[in-house]
Design a protein that fits this description.
With 97 residues, this protein is mostly helical. It contains four helices and no strands. The chain has a single domain, classed as Non-ribosomal Peptide Synthetase Peptidyl Carrier Protein, Chain A (Orthogonal Bundle), CATH 1.10.1200.
């Protein structure tokens, strides 16, 4: 998995919260209803251009307080890719139990 800058995911530790926030951001970028966006929705199927995907990455960075390199942002192909990356950031910053 690519390296991300390890800024904390801003107070969004809850899995459902991360997923719903990402779905809302994707829906806004695609100009569609959030109910039309599923975890396995592919960005190209939602009509998201590469430029829109990059703009979405900026929105995700802002919403979650993370920094995602452009090449990593371009590697995201689905909603699940983004959510998984955010979960990985949470796991990396959470202390071991």
């Amino acid at each position: 998995m690519p390296e991300y800058n390890r800024h904390p995911v801003a107070q969004r530790d809850d899995s459902a919260d991360i997923e719903s926030q990402v779905v809302r951001l994707v829906a806004a970028a695609c100009k569609c209803d959030p109910s039309a966006v599923a975890m396995d929705s592919k960005f190209d199927q939602l009509g998201l251009s590469s430029l829109s995907a990059l703009e979405l990455a900026f929105e995700i960075e802002s919403a979650f307080g993370v920094s995602i390199p452009d090449d990593v942002a371009f590697s995201f192909k689905s909603v699940r890719d983004v959510v998984d990356a955010l979960h990985a950031l949470n796991s990396a910053r959470s202390p071991s139990r």
